[in-house]
Amino acid sequence: MKKILIVMSLLLAVTQARAGDCKGVKERVDPFSNKAEKTAQFTIGGMFTKWTIEMEQKEGAATMRWGIAAQGEFNQKLDIGTKLLLRLEDGTILTLGTIEASTPVTQAVSGGGAVNVFSVYYLKFALSEETLGALSKSVVTDVKIDVPGLKIKNPTLKGRQMEKIKDVSSCFLNK
Q1: What is the pTM of this model?
Q2: Do the domain assignments include residue 19?
Q3: For residue 29, is it within any domain?
Q4: Cβ neighbours of 57 (radius 10 Å)
Q5: Is 1 within a domain?
Q6: Are 67 and 51 in contact (CB under 8 A)?
Q7: Helix crossing, 2-21 with 159-173: angle to 10°?
Q8: 5-48 confidence digits (pLDDT tens)
Q9: Domain span at residue 149?
Q10: Helix axes 159-173, 129-137, angle to 10 degrees
Q11: pLDDT of 112
C-alpha cells in the first residue's frame, strides 16, 4: 500500500509539473481541419487602460493579438508594420510589427451617471521562434506602441500579469 501511494504521488507530481508548463493555455482540435491549436487570453492594465492579449499557435505558427483600449475617440488607422516595443526584464528590447492594418472600434460606455468614450485597436503580430525564445526567458517589464502623431497611454504593468506571456511562450516552444 505504501508503494502504491509513493508511485501515485510521483505520478501526480510529474503530471502537475507538466500541466504547469502550459497553465492557462487551451488546447483543442479544429473540427474542420483536424489540426491542433493552442490559445491563451489574458488582460493587463487597470481600469482606464485595460488591454487584452490573445496568443495562438496553429500548425507551428504563433501569433499574438493585442486589444489596446484607449480613453477617447481615435480615428487614425494603423497600417501594417505598426511597432510594438517590449522591454524585457533582462534588458532586451523586442520590436514587433503588425501583420494586419487596424481601424479603431469606438464605444461609449455608461456607468454611474457618466459616459466614457473608449477606442480599441486590435494589433496582430507574428511570433518567430527567436521571439518566442526571448519572451519565454524573461518577463516583459514595459510596453510602448510607436505611432507617429498618436499618444496612447500604456497600461501600468503588474508583476504577475506579464508572466503569462512568458509562460505561454514557453508552452508554445514545447510543441
Answers
A1: 0.80
A2: no
A3: yes
A4: 23
A5: no
A6: yes
A7: 100
A8: 444 444 444 444 444 468 889 999 988 988 999 999 998 887 66
A9: 24-173
A10: 140
A11: 79
